[in-house]
Design goal:
The complex is a heterodimer of chains A (468) and B (239). With 468 residues, chain A is of the alpha+beta class. Chain A has two domains: 191 residues, no CATH class; 245 residues, no CATH class. Chain A has 17 helices and eleven strands. In chain A, strand 2 and strand 3 form a beta hairpin. In chain A, helix 13 crosses helix 15. Chain B has 239 residues and is an alpha/beta fold. The chains are: A alpha+beta (468), B alpha/beta (239).
């Protein structure tokens, strides 16, 4: 009690010095909390976006993750509906899962031959069940809002409808019919030059017309694309896709190749009249923290049933996520180190001055019988108080800054996103960040104070009493 | 006063040498002496004669280079640093020339401080602190901080602080040096009075003739050597 009383009174006694040191700690706390809140928002936003789009976990046939993207048709999951049922009915997995839905990857060539167009381009397509995809996009565990807009243009009962990436719509000359803003028309090809990317010997429109059962009647007023792909059996297959809109992708390579379509259409393109399979079974969980448990259970389930399936999480499927997380973690760690050093030096400097000024007092109370450890405690307590006062002040300012930013209506475009999203700082409800920063800075202040405190404790009493 | 003739401090062939770079300075040279219990003893001598060094050794805040120091029956060289701190907290009170009060504590808290070090219960602590402040005439100034007190008042607080735990020995290093003669005389009277009341052994270092006139035992030191020890009749004169 006496230690605390003396510590607080000495802090109050050296008001200006204490204020300067406390300010340094407060600035450190403010910077770490605000940047930490921003980083937390980035992580939550990225995770929300990915989970809304590709779920938490995806089940693939063994080998698909390493080799299958080059030939999705060869890595289809046999009896995928039975696998989905087994997952949905599993007593461990069932309460954890929000959505289980199949997907089909497609690689092929898309051509636009309507209205005088003659453009073709390789594409990377994905077949989904629209209603389940829309349900996935409503997942919002961290309260970030919808990062990827719901594709309202697609519906389960319109299997011929699809969306294309902004880049692909531009290349295939769909900007006009789709009313895409800031989208220039493709340049006229020189006479005798084949259209971009299209094999000159293949007329997709004609081929589509010949493929029995492959084409579906085009909806009036919707631009149509003809999609060509090799079936699992190796034969060429063509279907028609009615393009209802553009789904901008944040990465140009994807934006120039992306097509989203109904699962049925994708399966028809890849498997024709053969058995329809799926390249992936996407699982979206209620809570991200259940991911390791769900993954472990899936692995066990497949082993028990001797199914040649593997499980990958969203971070594995999106290396970009890990890179962004690591980048921001590195910046945060670097910033933490800098702030820690600033606080360390500020407190060491202040406490060293305090010890020097109070050398005679130290000698006196040591002579009166105070032990060395008590001297150490005394100065460490002062350092801890300085740290605590500064960190608390920084926390209060950070709360105000976060409130101001969150109410300012700022927007920004996150990495790999196509559209701006509201900028938010996630500080409230992040106890690890708040308590960690506060305790961390107080700990740095304690460590910093220990150095001069130890020197004070080791002073020879007679030397301390002689000090003027 | 008590007529207890046993020595409270025994020094046997004690030397203390300081080292300043390559030069060794002998502050005390083979001093042997015994300080009787419950007396008003003075260590006198010119500046630099070794008075303060001698008091430091008796106060267990310094260690001899050679020889043996026994305080209150304890051979202090055998004690660890913590044990020595506890020993000082229980047995020795200090009064300094510059008062050395803790500036952030009030007069009351300064006087109470030694009792906290020896773990005196709160109620007893309060009673004894108030009693000591009353004894030195500072009851009304108990809430004031040292910077709000005069030099004489500060030294009174220092005296109260030294005596409140009822130590066996009070060491006072030039206690009147920073006071005017009138205040110094009042402080001397006060110390003499409380010494009688509390039956404590006072050991001073001084060259203040006013203070020396109150001595019962005088140890004269010159160039680090004890040159004279005499007993005076001052005790009876001031009792």
């Amino acid at each position: 009690m006496l230690t605390l009383k003396v510590a607080l009174r000495n802090i109050a006694r050296n008001r200006r010095r204490s204020a300067m040191t406390g300010s340094a700690v407060a600035v450190g706390a403010l910077a770490l909390l605000v940047f930490g809140a921003f980083v937390t928002y980035i992580f939550a936003s990225l995770e929300t976006g990915l989970v809304q789009r590709i779920g938490h976990l995806t089940v693939f046939r063994n080998g698909y993750f390493v080799f299958g993207t080059g030939n999705p048709a060869a890595y289809g999951i046999d009896g995928f509906r039975d696998v989905m049922k087994a997952i949905a009915d599993d007593p461990v997995l069932s309460p954890l899962i929000r959505v289980v839905t199949p997907t089909q990857a497609v690689l092929g060539i898309a051509g636009n031959f309507e209205g005088g167009n003659d453009a073709a381009k390789t594409f990377l397509g994905v077949g989904v069940i629209p209603s389940q995809q829309q349900r996935m996009r409503q997942w919002d565990e961290f309260g970030e809002g919808t990062v990827y807009k719901i594709d309202a243009e697609l519906s389960d009962d319109q299997p011929t409808r699809g969306l294309v990436g902004g880049g692909l719509s531009r290349i295939l000359g769909l900007c006009g019919p789709l009313k895409v803003k800031d989208c220039p028309a493709p340049p006229q090809a020189a006479p005798g030059t084949p259209a971009s990317g299209a094999p000159a010997s293949v007329d997709l429109g004609e081929l589509a017309g010949r493929e029995a059962g492959a084409t579906v009647a085009a909806e009036k007023a919707l631009p149509r694309l003809d999609l060509l792909a090799a079936t699992a059996a190796g034969a060429p297959n063509v279907v028609s896709l009615n393009v209802v809109g553009v789904a901008q992708q944040g990465v140009k390579e994807l934006d120039d190749n992306y097509i989203a379509m109904h699962l049925e259409l994708a399966q028809q393109l890849v498997y024709g009249r053969g058995e329809h399979k799926a390249t992936g079974i996407v699982l979206q969980l209620h809570r991200s923290e259940d991911l390791p448990r769900a993954r472990a259970r899936l692995t066990t389930l497949f082993a028990e049933r001797h199914l040649p399936l593997e499980v990958r999480d969203f971070a594995e499927l999106t290396p970009f996520y890990g890179q962004v997380v690591n980048l921001f973690r590195s910046i945060f760690a670097f910033m933490t180190a800098i702030m820690g050093v600033i606080v360390l030096f500020a407190v060491v400097n202040t406490m060293t001055m305090n010890v020097m000024e109070r050398t005679n007092e130290i000698g006196t109370i040591r002579a009166m019988g105070l032990r060395r450890n008590a001297i150490r405690r005394q100065f460490v307590a002062e350092g801890a108080f300085l740290g605590a006062i500064g960190a608390t002040l920084g926390l209060l300012i950070a709360v105000a800054v976060v409130a101001a930013v969150n109410h300012a209506g700022l927007t920004w475009t996150p990495p790999a996103n196509a559209a701006p999203t509201p900028l938010r700082l996630d500080l409230y409800g992040r106890p690890v960040l708040i308590v960690g920063t506060w305790l961390g800075l107080v700990l740095v202040a304690v460590v910093a104070a220990y150095i001069p405190a130890n020197r004070a404790a080791r002073l020879a009493i007679v030397d301390a009493l002689r000090h003027v | 006063m008590h007529n207890d003739s046993t020595a409270v401090v025994r020094l046997d062939d004690v030397s203390r040498t300081y080292r300043a770079g390559d030069i060794e300075v002998a502050a005390l040279k083979g001093i042997s002496m015994e300080v009787p219990r419950h007396r008003f003893s003075m260590v006198v001598g010119p500046s630099g004669s070794g008075k303060t060094t001698l008091l430091n050794l008796i106060g267990c805040i310094d260690a001899p280079t050679a020889g043996r120091v026994e305080v209150c029956g304890e051979r202090v060289a055998s004690l660890s640093d913590n044990a020595l701190s506890d020993f000082r907290a229980r047995n020795i009170g200090f009064i300094f020339q510059s008062f050395n009060l803790v500036p952030v504590l009030s007069a009351y808290e300064n006087v109470e401080y030694p009792l906290l070090l020896v773990g005196t219960p709160a109620a007893e602590r309060r009673r004894r602190t108030l009693e000591m402040l009353e004894a030195v005439g500072l009851s009304r100034q108990s809430r004031q901080r040292p910077n709000e007190l005069s030099g004489g008042q500060k030294q009174r607080v220092a005296i109260a602080r030294a005596l409140v735990k009822r130590p066996q020995i009070v060491l006072a290093d030039e206690p009147t040096a920073n006071l005017d003669s009138r205040t110094g005389a009042a402080i001397i009277d006060l110390m003499h009075q409380v010494q009688g009341d509390f039956h404590t052994t006072f050991i001073f270092s001084t060259h203040d003739p006013q203070l020396i006139s109150h001595a019962e035992e005088i140890f004269s030191i010159r160039d680090g050597e004890l040159v004279e020890h005499r007993t005076t009749g001052a005790a009876h004169a001031h009792a």
